[in-house]
Design goal:
By secondary structure, this protein is of the alpha+beta class. Helix content is about 45%, strand content about 20%.
């Protein structure tokens, strides 16, 4: 089978031209918000305070719950064995000074 050099050239030109057009219209994906070292330090301290509050709970222990904080917003994730534990973890986190909001992504373990 013979290839037509003119068609090959047109196909290459169209491909390169189309790719350049697409690339010029693309914007880089938004990355994580830049935070200062002070902000990161405050967030880490808040996360540790929430973890300590969960660990000091008289009624429940939360060994499989992770805590992440960003600008006063706390995300809880991980596993507990009951809906009461999930709600209790959120209540405890909301009671920690400096916590503005809680995103409770804890999953119930079967």
């Amino acid at each position: 089978m013979k290839t037509n050099p003119i068609l090959v050239a047109l196909l290459i030109t169209a491909t390169v031209s189309g790719g350049a057009t697409l690339m010029s219209g693309c914007k880089p994906a938004a990355g994580p918000v830049e935070r200062t070292s002070t902000e990161r330090s405050v967030d880490e301290e808040l996360s540790e305070t929430v973890k300590a509050a969960l660990g000091n709970s008289a009624s429940f222990k939360f060994p499989d719950v992770q805590v992440i904080s960003v600008n006063g917003k706390v995300q809880l994730s991980g596993f507990v064995i009951s809906a009461d534990q999930k709600q209790s973890a959120e209540t405890i986190a909301r009671g920690v000074p400096g916590v503005e909001d809680v995103d409770n992504k804890i999953t119930l373990r079967n």
